[in-house]
Amino acid sequence: LYFADYITTHSVCRLVMFPGRTSRMISKSKVLVFLLFFTGIGVYFKTGYQLTHYAVDQKLCACIKCLSEDKQLLLDRSNRSVQPFLTANLNLSQNEFNWWKDLQAESRSFRVYETTVANLFQIFPKNPDVIQPKYDHCRTCAVVGNSGNLRRSHYGPLIDLHEVVIRMNTGITRGFEKDVGNKTTHHVMYPESAVDLDDNTHFVLFPFKIQDFEWLINASTTGFTGRSYMPVKSKIKTNKDLVMVVNPAFMKYVHEVWLGNKGRYPSTGFMALILALHICDEVNVFGYGADSDGNWSHYWEILTNKRLRTGVHPGNYEYNIIQQLAQQQKIKFYEGLMKKM
């Protein structure tokens, strides 16, 4: 536009000085001004469109759908500001501690909690080993529950194709590889359900009391000698560099936001699923729910108690949320054969 102003001014000056020779020059100048003006406008809008188009196309991951881009996971229940894992610099609030300590009647103080967690990070990584989202990478995760619905499912090879395979509690693979696979990258446990792990598997601790932190410290070093409501392993085999501890504030968030305070607290399986929604780009779910008779059995055992239900956990409510997530195509839910019968 500055150039156009210059041309117009210059042409007027020539008209005053040389009236006979510049009339045709003014007409040509006007045409040139208009051409330059519209060319500039075209370049401006084209550049703006290209930048906007690039911003839209630039995804956070390489999956067809990225959970990390989803701003409304099941009626906006997902709050990505809640950190799933404890870190050395993450502080729990007094309110969050008060909620957490009531899960299993913890009687010790907030100060004891803080001291114990500080001791924990003297041994284990100060930050969790989490795969970060990348525009050219798709973090596929299989969350494998322990439901009897996995029997005769033949899901094993499909489960093992995932980059991250999350299992929980005493779930075993040996002898059941055809149905459940044999790959495990993350094993979610608490002391009373703990099993030994290989050097390539992350131990994900769900802590319910201060003693759970103490158990992890001692069971992986000198040995744990305390007691709990069930027998616990005095020592556990695990790679200390791959230990991750779930944030008690995240457990509170799952119970209040996702479950609406149903039940005493969420099941390990449900918390593992919501954890996957926070650290994965694509989540596929296996081995959840009761069998066709309504029993919550495990795939590796023969059920003898035909009245077995979910105890303190809101099993049916959790299962309904999983189905809603599947219906909204946030996850893919493989129900298994027994549920279909």
TrEMBL record:
Catalytic activity from the UniProt record: a beta-D-galactosyl-(1->3)-N-acetyl-alpha-D-galactosaminyl derivative + CMP-N-acetyl-beta-neuraminate = an N-acetyl-alpha-neuraminyl-(2->3)-beta-D-galactosyl-(1->3)-N-acetyl-alpha-D-galactosaminyl derivative + CMP + H(+); a ganglioside GM1 (d18:1(4E)) + CMP-N-acetyl-beta-neuraminate = a ganglioside GD1a (d18:1(4E)) + CMP + H(+); a globoside GalGb4Cer + CMP-N-acetyl-beta-neuraminate = a globoside MSGG + CMP + H(+); ganglioside GM1 (d18:1(4E)/18:0) + CMP-N-acetyl-beta-neuraminate = ganglioside GD1a (18:1(4E)/18:0) + CMP + H(+)
Q: What is its EC number?
A: 2.4.3.2, 2.4.3.4
Q: Which residues cross the membrane?
A: 31-49
The protein's location, in the record's own words, is: Golgi apparatus, Golgi stack membrane; Secreted
One Gene Ontology CC term in the entry:
extracellular region
Which InterPro entries does this UniProt record tie to the protein? Beta-gal_alpha2-3_sialyltrans, Glyco_trans_29, GT29-like_sf, Sialyl_trans
Q: Which UniProt keywords apply?
A: Disulfide bond, Glycoprotein, Glycosyltransferase, Golgi apparatus, Lipid metabolism, Membrane, Secreted, Signal-anchor, Transferase, Transmembrane, Transmembrane helix
Please give the superkingdom of this protein's source.
Eukaryota
User: Any S-S bridges, and between which cysteines?
Assistant: 141-280
In alphabetical order, the GO MF annotations are: beta-D-galactosyl-(1->3)-N-acetyl-beta-D-galactosaminide alpha-2,3- sialyltransferase; beta-galactoside (CMP) alpha-2,3-sialyltransferase activity
The pathway is: Protein modification; protein glycosylation; Glycolipid biosynthesis
Tell me the membrane topology, using the record's own terms.
Answer: Single-pass type II membrane protein
**Enzyme class, one word?**
transferase
Q: Which Gene3D superfamilies match?
A: Glycosyl transferase family 29
Q: Which residues bind substrate?
A: 104, 146, 169, 229, 265, 269, 289, 298, 313
Q: Which GO terms are recorded in the biological process aspect for this UniProt protein?
A: lipid metabolic process; sialylation
How does this polypeptide assemble, per the annotation?
A: Homodimer; disulfide-linked. Homodimer formation occurs in the endoplasmic reticulum.
Family membership: Belongs to the glycosyltransferase 29 family.
Instruction: Please state what the protein is called.
Output: CMP-N-acetylneuraminate-beta-galactosamide-alpha-2,3-sialyltransferase 1
Q: What is the lineage of its organism?
A: Eukaryota, Metazoa, Chordata, Craniata, Vertebrata
